[in-house]
Structures are given as structure tokens and as C-alpha cells.
Amino acid sequence: MDPVRNPFAPGAGQRPPELAGRDREADAFDVVLERISRGRPERSLVLTGLRGVGKTVLLGELRSMAVRRGWGAGKLEARPDAGIRRPLSAALHRAVRDLAVRHRAPDRVEEVLAVLKAFALKSNPDGAKLRDRWQPGIDVPAAQGRADSGDIEIDMVELFTDVAELAADVGTGVVLLIDEMQDVQPEDVSALCAACHELSQSGAPLIVVGAGLPHLPAVLSASKSYSERLFRYVRIDRLDRSDADHAVVVPIEREDATISSEALDALFSISGGYPYFVQAYGKAAWDAAVRAPIAADDVRLAAPDAENELAVGFFGSRYERATPSEREYLCAMAEVVEGRDEAAGTASIAQYLERKPSSLSPARDGLIKKGLVYSAERGQIAFTVPHFGRYLLTQD
């Protein structure tokens, strides 16, 4: 099989050749856009799921849907070691530029950009020298007395309100998409919730779509108790058998090739239906096949190559981020669940390591902060990465 024509695309956030199994989420978002366009109230959206299920890809698809409707759209990725002012400013700057194309009053656009610049400049530390001060690249003077108090909650509410009013002027809306939302710092999470609450009460046409790991709802709830009612939560999971087959068959047929039903059985079994793994094993199977149709033997022959690539780029890079004590904890988790994708009891892990549970808290907390595990429920811990336990059991 010609490797140049290989249709599969395993990559972080890279859109697969066929976005299968996400029609329900796309249709629901289309309804949200339409309702807001008609002035009807609607909640912001939070997507949760393990790594490799396609949350980032879906965020990109939702952004494209909004842009096609004439909405302003900005996207950012949260980082645990940085505040949200700068990336949020850049994302909303992009959204405002989208709106400016349709707005007939340049002065009104500049007013909002001035507020946005004032908000952005507050990310600079007090007393910072001029050469060390970050400039947001907005070519208007910063506003005074609007979104520049230094209180992130007050400033974000005012900024969101002004941007939403600009969108309302042109009869459209704004969507702010936040990836890795569980990494937003607590103060900024509280501000986001407050801003979304204010907008939902006023019916302003600005919504937030966040994506993060399964414990993201708990992060939001710990910040604001009303967050449970503020957002609509959607769990993004692995593909079922028919959708997984669709994700494989359609790209192959576009290249005038075929795949046997036995090969599809083997691909689903080895990938577990996780979209990233479907792409990884599909790509390897195409390269391993001499001719069409791709056979089950081709999938089995290609599996070690795919697993070696995953071991370096998907599993290994995450494992290397852990300290020795955290790696010990990860390996103990894998042993307790016997490599399965399920939660392990923290007491069982302590028993396996012959340690007191309290002595393992630093390692567990460090892994949670690094996004390698999450607390499934009280007394339970699980991997954020599918098949991670199986990978760990194969390591020395």
C-alpha cells in the first residue's frame, strides 16, 4: 500500500480524516447556536473525557461551526503554571476581529478593543519595568476604568459583557473555547464561572465551551456551587463499534482501497474504540499491508510498530514527567487493576506497596496536578490516559 496515500492521522488535536461518532454533540451545539441567535437563554458547555477520545478535535469542530454561522470565536489552552488573562485576551482579540468584519461602526469596535487591551495589560506585574512589560498587540489606547481593576472576576465580567454587546450589535454571538480547562487556576475558574453566570442571567450572546479531564466538573463545583447548574456537561467517550468501523472504512474507501471485516474486528479489539488509537493502529495497518484488502494479519503484523510509536509519543512522554515516587505509584496502580482501564482503590495501592496511605498522598497529588491520574470518586484513583496501565505492565 502506498504510504503517501495513507489517510490516517494520529496526532495531538489533529482532525481525523473522518470525524465519526460525534454527530450528537455537533447537533446539540448547533441547537445552542440557533437558540442564542434567537435571543433564547442557553447554558455554556463543558466536555469531559479521558485523553485520546478527541476532545480537542471536537473543540475545533465546534469552533468551525460557530465561524460558519458568522460568530466570533476564540480558542485557548489553559496551563497550570500560568494565569488566564493573556491567553484569554488573545482568544477574545481573535473573536473581536471576526466580528469587526461585519460591524458597520469602527468606533464601536475600537471601544471594545480598548477595554480588551486594558484587561490584558493587567497581566503585567505591578512595578514591572517598561522593557519587561508585555504588550498585547492591540493598536488602540487602553481604556480607563473598565476591566482594569486588577480583580480578575470583576474585570472578566465587564470584558465579557462588552464583547457580547458588540456581537449583539451585528446579530450574532461569541464562543470562547477553553482546552485543558481543569488546569485553569482556582481564582480564574471562579472568575469564569461568575462571568458565565452574569451572561446567562442577562441573555448576552457569549458562551464558553470548555474541555477537560473527567474531574473537571469537580474543579468547577469547588469554585462555585452553582456551576452544576451553570454548565451543561457532556461526557466524551470511546467510539462504539459501528462508529469505529466508520472512522476506518470511509477514509480507506476514499483512497479506492478496502479492508476486511476480520481486520476491522482486530482493529477494534486492539484500539478499544479510542479515536487516537484507531488512527494509530489504522495508519500502521495501512503501511504494513502489501495490497488491498487490508487483512487481520496486516493489523497483527503492524501492532508492534504502532505500540512502539505510542510508547514513545503517547505513553512514554507522560511517564517521563513523573518523579521516581510518582512512577512507583503509577506502577502500583497498574498492578492493582491488572492493566485494565478502571479505577483503583487508594487503600489497595497502599496495601500493595506496604505503605501507609498518608505517606502516598504527595505522589498522588503530584500525579493529579500533572494530569496523569484523576480522582474518580472518594477513595478511588484512575489513569487519565487509556491503556496506560497496560503499557506500564510491559515496562521493566
TrEMBL record:
UniProt keywords, alphabetically: Heme, Iron, Metal-binding
InterPro entries linked: AAA_16, Cyt_c-like_dom, P-loop_NTPase
One GO molecular-function entry: heme binding
Pfam family, one: AAA_16
N-terminal signal peptide: none
Domain Cytochrome c: 168-357
Ranges where the record places region Disordered: 1-24
Keyword Metal-binding: yes
Protein known as: AAA family ATPase
